[in-house]
Amino acid sequence: MSVPSLHINDQSPIEEQPRDRDVTRKSLHQNIFGKLRPLPFQYHWTVWYDRHTDTPNTDYDSRLYVLHEDVADIATFYRVYNNYPWDKIRLRDTVHIFRKGVKPVWEDPENRNGGCWRFRVPKSKAQAFFHEITILCMANEFQAVLEKEHDHVLGVSTSIRFNTHLISVWNKLGSNERSIKALEQTILDRLSPELRPTGTGSNAYFYKRHDENEGYHEAVEQSNT
């Protein structure tokens, strides 16, 4: 699988090579990279691997582990991203990129009242989609539109399915309709045109609160014991 690559080191500025690509996509990347060049990320991030199991009620500690604990800047992100074997992820396994200190599970205190936008993305576009979503998240492009609602974007995930990837953007306040709608609109506006979903509903993308998932209440109860 072809993975977007951008070579960065700590001594050289980030530069985009001319490409015959959509101007909007190029501008999006240039604007974000320009903001990130002088400073580290506002938040630090952790990369997690979530191994699927068919065994019910499996302890997350036995299936969830850290790939990289502290992604503090764009150079570190690309050192991790460009060297990860994305094409080797097993069916139904998941990679999460979350704010450091927040575990990518429903029962984490930061996640309990939250939810996520979920996008079903064809395999041919999934890696590019996840790449852009991740950059927009870590660059605070999503967070900026939620500040006035006192909401937070906590992380992004990509989960491998048979014909698609299920890509999620997690936010803290699953009952705040204004922030949920603002996040949706920002995702759609900032994605490259060729990656935007062509419809709504279960066949394209949808929002779901964590407490609407089967097993949520049991997971929270177990975490409190």
From TrEMBL:
Keywords: Initiation factor, Protein biosynthesis, RNA-binding, Translation regulation. It comes from the Eukaryota. It holds the Pfam family IF4E. SUPFAM superfamilies: eIF4e-like. GO terms for molecular function: RNA 7-methylguanosine cap binding; translation initiation factor activity. Residues 1-23 are annotated as: Disordered. GO terms for biological process: regulation of translation. GO terms for cellular component: eukaryotic translation initiation factor 4F complex. Belongs to the eukaryotic initiation factor 4E family. This is Translation initiation factor eIF4e.
